[in-house]
Amino acid sequence: MINEKNIPSSQEETARQQSFIQLAKALTEQKMKTLGRPLTYCLTTFGCQMNEKQSEAVAGIMDEIGYVRQENEEADVVIYNTCTVRENANLKVYGRLGHLHSLKDKNPDMKIILFGCMMQEAHVVEKIKKTYSFVNLVFGTHNIFKFAELFYEMLLSDMQLIDIWEGTDQIVEDLPTERNYTFKSGVNIMFGCNNFCSYCIVPYVRGRERSRKPEAIIKEIKNLVADGVSEVMLLGQNVNSYGKTLETPVTFAQLLTMLEDIEGLRRIRFMTSHPKDLSDELIEVMAKSKKICHHLHLPLQSGSSRILKEMNRRYDKEKYLNLVENIRTAIPDISLTTDIIVGFPGETEEDFQETLDVVRQAGYDTAFTFIYSKRTGTPAAAKEDQVPEDVVKDRFNRLLTLVQEQGRIRSSRFEGTVQEVLVEEESKEKGIFTGRTQYNLLVHFPADESLLGTYVKVKLEECKGFYYLGSLSE
Ligand code: SAH
Ligand code: SF4
Ligand code: F3S
Fold first, then answer.
1. Is 7's pLDDT higher than 50?
2. Are 334 and 294 in contact (CB under 8 A)?
3. d(CA 313, CA 316)
């Protein structure tokens, strides 16, 4: 069977990495003995949930090797998982590297590791080689599964180690991983992106779209459930095109139907849905499902059909609004959220008014608004008609005001109702816990630790904009 071709190679790779974990562990034990103290690491993640998930994998390996995680950057190993979706993500990393340099002056044994999306850009790597030669290890997004091997090599080397791959079709399964929460988890269902929206760097730094096999996803989720997880967030840049490139193609809606059957799994979420690929089949499956949360993140980016075309989004204002209408008809209590970019090159006041119009019509619970950021190498970066900064800022502020107004009205629709809430953490205020409804709305309410990770009924008493104050019901 052709299908089996990749399985042994993924298993072999997993075994190889396991052996590097053991080698690094032996070195680490030796070093701890000499020092007479534990070795520590600090790991910071920039960017999206995909990065969060991959950071958990790196943390899992660091834990196995024997390092103790800490929040403080005065650690033996400092690791940044980077993002480059907007320029300010890059600036943050450069800013913090300056600070790390001064820490390393105090502790020359300290190791600094950079990986993730930003490292897939040649100009970034050049800058690190030239200006930040104190960084010990640099790798990208395609070879994260090799972390144990790279880490071991780094421990043996005095040189700056750089390993960036152009791309990969490899998906290595079953490596150790840590989890930020015991009761909920992200699950990658695919990697990369083929959409090439004209402003976006992601397809260049994450490579081509690759879907995991349904069996691998099901196995991971079953293991998570056995381990106490009841809510999963399926992750992909465009989950609606899941499975198209598999040898035996499977649609996203079919995958969801398979996951619905997993006993003990209570809530299924997913991100992100590209409007151009959202099928009627998916809407139907969502409407019928007992587990899929009634929340859909449906990035709009712009309300102007002309700008959407320039963005290469492959839908227009009308198609988007139709889609919203169909979803609301099938799932009347759906909570919709979105992403919007302001100041795409050539955006006129008229175009911007179209965006405001869609925001008014679509009724978002929340909208994440971004100022367009020019990304080197993308088609939009080469456009000459970049919008002046003051014009963009003014539009951004007007959009934000509308989004907040709308959000407050939309979110308050649950005021006075009792909702099922997953208790996620204690808030900053002692004795007050934070939970999430299936609509992704946060609620703060008095409770105690024993309820963490469980589902409780909470009366949503007062809407505070994007969150509620409530109390346990029953
Ligand atoms: N795959 C997801 C988005 C991933 S990036 C999707 O297609 O919806 C998350 C968000 O960052 C995007 O939705 C977009 O709104 C924003 N974004 C991406 N590139 C950007 C850029 N160059 N400038 C400003 N915002 C950008
Ligand atoms: Fe970027 Fe578009 Fe891919 Fe989303 S779908 S990651 S915005 S190229
Ligand atoms: Fe950033 Fe990479 Fe995610 S660029 S948004 S971390 S895919």
1. no
2. yes
3. 8
